[in-house]
Design a protein that fits this description.
- By secondary structure, the chain is mainly alpha-helical.
- A three-stranded antiparallel β-sheet has the order 1-2-3. Strands 4-5 form a two-stranded antiparallel ribbon.
- The longest helix is centred in the first third of the chain and has 34 residues.
- It is globular, with a radius of gyration of 22 Å.
- The two termini are about 40 Å apart.
- It is a multi-pass membrane protein.
- Its main location: endoplasmic reticulum.
Amino acid sequence: MAARRRPGGAAAGDPPTRPQPADAVAASGEPAKDPVLRPPNLSVAAAAAAIFLAPFSYLAFVHYPLDADLRGSILKCGAMSLGGFFVVLKLIPVAARYHLRRRMFGYDINKKGLPTGEIKVPEALGLVVGIVYLVTAIIFQQFHFTEDSIWLVEYNAALASVCFMILLGFVDDVLDIPWRVKLALPTIAALPLLMAYAGGTSIIIPKPLTPYVGLTVLELGVFYKLFMLLLAVFCTNSINIHAGINGLEVGQTVVISAAVLIHNVMRIGSSTDIETQQAHEFSIYLVLPFLTTSLALLAFNWYPSIVFVGDTYTYFAGMALAVVGILGHFSETLLLFFLPQVLNFLCSVPQLFHFVPCPRHRLPRFDPQTGLLTGTKDGNLVNIFLRLFGKCSEKALCIRLLIFQALCCVFCFWLRYVLTGWYK
């Protein structure tokens, strides 16, 4: 959910204003002018790629003695993902012009009172990232999986769920669906994943609880699939509500997906179980193109945003991360990576369920004189950080929140690997 407001002009109950037809514009004698977008901030994308991909590359190609075929497959996936990065860079300006022509734009609320606050910012550009991601993943499938691969069905189910979520997210951007309906969208999109899931439905009881439970493994059956469904619903909506400032939606998903990549290669390198290695290998192939295409979007969405990502991207990103966590069999670790989103959700519960008044945009107050944001009483991390650490610029606030996201991922690694052998 971007920090934006829809263009006004029509009163309640009036029919929506339709864009002027192209032939009418030509007849008026006024030449049609395509808006000129600022160039993307490639330095931000390059810095993020260096910070987050360097540890993964070192672990995969230097630290762990991975199989040569696996390294070759990772390089193949990485090359296709890099191609997806450049395709997104090329297509976003093209798509942005089409969105502006169809009046799919908004104004940045956090710059209200400044000239930049009156610029029409094209919305729902997460659609480009989603489409390029799907095409990249499908092409990689043709070069990697064989017809009798045991992972092919789940791979296609994952792509179907992601595709479904992109469609529903774009519908939300166009129709502005109410919140009670938004909660049901991931439920629909997760159906292909649930129907095709062929993995285990049991959980390992933590060792400290084993004497009290009397079991080491607990079979959940249909309740495990219910957990998968709830995880998909949480991931998609948690990214959507932890938003509101330039770069935050894409930035948090870049941090989480990089942590997922590192976790996957560490599990492959430290495990001797073939099924575990294959599950994490499968996860790498899904999350690597997601990370690179998101980095390209970050170059356009970083402060000051050239485009808004829309609910299309937040839903797509949440579902993509949910499927890699579920099919990679590390849903508990994924929830730890989502710790800021969990905290944001818990703090938002009173407003989300209308125990207290909830405004449409739970955004901080912007002072055009100083250019700083001030926290409101709304219960989300954006405002809580401003109340705790004082007013600051939008860019500085985003950086603080992303550092917190990264620190939570580091804490997850510490907790996950320090407790190995004692907890499970």
